[in-house]
Design brief:
This is DUF4226 domain-containing protein. Keywords: Coiled coil. It holds the Pfam family DUF4226. It comes from [Mycobacterium] nativiensis. The protein contains 2 helices and no strands. It is rod-shaped, with a radius of gyration of 28 Å. The chain has one domain. The two termini are 41 Å apart. By secondary structure, the protein is mostly helical.
Length: 120
């Protein structure tokens, strides 16, 4: 039986093209992952800054609130704290939703690696 040198060369070129495509897909997925990660870090930093600002407002208000030793002043301060609590919940909820969204994006990228770059 004779070997077909052109067949081997074609098979090698086909395999080389497949590997190049897989590498290109991996590079693209790596870049997407870096973007997701960079955005997640920035979002977490922003959330932390918002929480730090709320904390500073509460600390400042606690030391300077007018008439805090009166029933009316106490009630107003309690309303202020309730509003700040809602803000805190909103920041945490936004961060949780963002984290879940990014988790789904990373999961999709993981599948791209498993499938060699196929996006289906």
């Amino acid at each position: 039986m004779t070997e077909d040198p052109d067949g081997f060369a074609d098979a090698a070129r086909t395999r080389e093209l497949q590997l190049a495509n897989r590498l290109a897909a991996s590079v693209a997925a790596d870049e997407e992952f870096q973007t997701i990660l960079r955005d997640a870090v920035e979002n977490n930093r922003s959330s932390r800054q918002r929480l730090d600002a709320i904390e500073a407002e509460i600390r400042q208000a606690a030391t300077t609130w007018p008439a805090l030793d009166t029933p009316a002043g106490s009630r107003q301060f309690q309303q202020f704290l309730t509003a700040k609590t809602r803000e805190i919940y909103r920041v945490v909820d936004d961060a949780t939703k963002d984290s879940a969204h990014r988790s789904r994006l990373v999961e999709t990228l993981t599948n791209h690696y498993k499938l060699g770059g196929d996006k289906d």
